[in-house]
Each structure stands twice: as structure tokens, then as C-alpha cells.
Amino acid sequence: MNEYDSNRIYDSVKRIGFEKTDNYEDANCYLLNTCHIRDKAKEKVYHEIGRVKKIFRAKKKPLVIVAGCVAQAENQEMLKREPYIDLVIGPQAYHKINDTILNYTEKQKIEETDFDAVSKFEYLSRIKNQSSESSSFLTIQEGCDKFCNFCVVPYTRGPEYSRPFKQIINEAKNLADQGSKEIVLLGQNVNSYKYNGFKLSDLILEIEKLNQIQRIRYTTSHPKDMTDDLIDVYKYSKKLMPLIHLPVQSGSDKILNLMNRKHSIKEYLNVYEKLKKINSCIEFSSDFIIGYPGEDEREFNQTYNLIKELKFINSYSFIFSPRPGTVADKLKLIDKKKSLKRLKKIQSLLFKIQIKKNKSLENKLLKVLVENKTKDNKRLFGRSEYMTAVILEGKEDYVGQTVNARIISSNQNSLFGKIDQSNNKKVA
């Protein structure tokens, strides 16, 4: 979502004459879009500002803007801690960014952190989304009403807000016209989308009608909102990809209750089994918080055993990081060495499963959407239907196309192969 927001911020500031530069020293405005999910991400902000200060030590200071969730959470505290920052703009105030920049005067500090998602998206809907990527992000929902005890999102993104159905479809059409072949629908709680009777399932089926769009994905989902109408879409949709990112966070009902996750392992498994019954090829990815306050060996082993049972194709796992202002911030932490030991054990299992799944794809044909060239410009980069990175030998003409690729080798995170000429139409 930060990537989507960053692109839309740029679409906005272009209207007041700004252009991107790849050279720090050329900038007269430096904007950092931030995340607040973990403490490390917050500290990176200050490290990055320190780097900018060094670069501009002997030059005229640029206008320094911090946007995003750290800006929302820290606001005035950030301006006090780092006087080099000029403007602080929260994620629901991006519609004010042009006026804020234009009205800025030196030695003035400005903070814009009101929750106003309605005005934000009404404003952005009037500015063309300039993305011309093969795969494009499209935010449909922001904020969260779940209030998991560890999560800062309700405080940095605000309450759940679903964009108007037609507004989203118009943006999807625009992206398709500009060359997008895949649309990834985004939301902090994307499957909670509701607008005048429309749900996420309706959005998927409507976007499917766009001929140019070949693939549809959505992230991130909450198990409580995997409703039957959304599950049933997998019966009918030909463009919805068979990968579901469905964070479980823990394999223990006790820990889920302490987290205020509002779902049980039984409910999670029920969703899993319903989807597997529709299509056995559907794969799941997930998130895991290890060392949550109250987790003992029994609860940890339940998480370990859940991973062994479901064999997630890809997952993100972290040691619990307390966020200021959340309920869990006040809880007694588990010994860090113990948490780290558990994390290593979990990651070892997750990575073994990932390696094994990737290995099983060797010598097989996969459908791959070629997104761009690799950084060295020697090969092509794409993704499989399961979002796995695929590095291919092939010509640049294939960028933006879905090709059949023969997988030759693999590692933990990537597949390597070549385009199967006999199974792909000649490129015009």
C-alpha cells in the first residue's frame, strides 16, 4: 500500500511542477513515505533523515517531508526529535500535500494528520493514476476496525473505509488502458470491503470483465472476513490467482484470544478446507508473530504443528514488536533469546517447505507474467500464479506478456527457467 500511496503522491505533486530525480544531491524536496508496523521501520526513518543531512551539509537544505504511518503516529514528537523535518503528512491527508508544499515558508513546521479518507480518494480519483506497470496496485479499502491488540493500523490509518465501487472500477479501467495485465487489490483488511451492497467478490467479477486484465489478486485478508460469497468466486473466476494471503499469526487459540484476533484455529481451518475443496491447487501464505506475550512452549508448538500441517507456500514471520499506544505495548515481554530461538525454528520449517515446493516445480511448465528486465538487463523478471519470483532467459519483447516457462532450477525464493517457445505465440 505504501508503494501505491507513493505513486499517487507523485501523480499529485507533478501537478505543481515536481519531477523525480535519481540523484539525492539534485533534490530540492525530499519525501519519505513510512511504515510503522515494527519499531525497526520507525528508526529507519531517522537514519535516513540523518543521511540526507550529511548529503546536504554544504548545500541548500531541501524541503523535507515525512509521510505515511510513522508521520501519523509520531507527528509532533517527530518534529521535536528531528528539526530537519519540515512537513509531516499522515496517510489520510495526501490530498492536502500540494497546498501544504505551496504554502510552506522557511522556519515553519507543518503537521497534517487528520483522518479524511473520503476527501483523499475523491481528490486522487480526479488525478489519473500514471502507473504503466504490467502489475499494478489498486487500493480499495483502508483502515481497520478489528483492533488486534498488537496492531497499530487502526491508530495510523483510522477506521475502515471502502472506496466507492465505481471509483475503483474507473481506476482499474485506466490501469488496463495503460498496459496493466494484473491488478492487485489492496487494503489493510481488504476482504472487509463493503460499499452500497457491493463486496470484494463483486469487484473481482467486475474487473474480470476487462479484456486487458489477465490476473487479479488481493491482499491482505482477515480470516473473519473470508465470507462464502468470496470463497465461491474461486469457483467461477478465471482470472483470480490461486494464492491466498491469509494471516493466522499463531496456531494457538489461547494466543489468538490474547491478540484479540476474533477468529479461532477451527474457523481458520474451515476456510482453508472450503477453498481446497473448490480447487486443490489453491495455496496459502501467512504471517506469524513469534514470542507474543503469554506464549509458552505448548502454544509455540501448536504454531509449529499448524505450519507442518498446512505447508504454507510463503510466509512472513517476526518476533513480537510492541507498538506504542496498543494494548500489547503494556504486556510483559518474553525473553528475547527464547523468542529468537523459536523464530529460527519456525523460519527453518517455513523455508524447508518453501524450498521443497519450489523444487517440485522444476522441469514443469508454469504461466509467468513477465513484469520487467532484471537489474543487470540480461534476463527477465516475472511472477508465477503463486507470486513466486521467476527469472527467465528471453527477449525484452516478452515484458507485459503471460508466457509458458520451463523451470530449470530453483532456490528458496526464486525459480529460474526459460520461455518455452513451442507453447508461446510469436511476439509481434
Name the descriptors.
alpha/beta, Rossmann fold, pyruvate-formate lyase- activating enzyme, OB fold (Dihydrolipoamide Acetyltransferase, E2P), 3 domains, four-stranded parallel β-sheet, 19 strands
**What is the percent of helical residues?**
25-40%
Look up the CATH topology of the largest domain. pyruvate-formate lyase- activating enzyme
- Let me know the number of strands: 19
Can you tell me the CATH class of the largest domain?
Alpha Beta
**Secondary-structure content class:** alpha/beta
Instruction: Estimate the strand proportion.
Output: 15-25%
User: pLDDT below 50 for ≥5 consecutive residues: which ranges?
Assistant: none
CATH homologous superfamily identity of the largest domain? tm_1862 like domain
Total individual domains? 3
Ends distance: 34 Å
User: Mean pLDDT, rounded to whole units?
Assistant: 93
Cα gyration radius (Å): 22 Å
> What spatial form do the alpha-carbon principal axes imply?
globular
SS element count, helices? 13
Strand order of the largest sheet: 15-16-17-19-18
**What is the CATH architecture annotation of the largest domain?**
Alpha-Beta Horseshoe
Give an overview of the whole structure:
The strands form six sheets. A five-stranded mixed barrel has the order 15-16-17-19-18. It is built from 13 helices and 19 strands. Strand 16 (380-383) and strand 17 (389-393) form a beta hairpin. The chain has helices at residues 2-13, 39-55, 69-81, 97-102, 117-125, 153-156, 165-177, 200-207, 228-236, 253-259, 265-278, 297-310, 336-359, and strands at 29-34, 63-68, 87-89, 110-112, 135-139, 141-142, 161-162, 182-186, 194-195, 198-199, 215-219, 243-245, 283-290, 314-319, 365-373, 380-383, 389-393, 402-410, 414-419. The protein has 428 residues and is α/β, with parallel strands linked by helices.
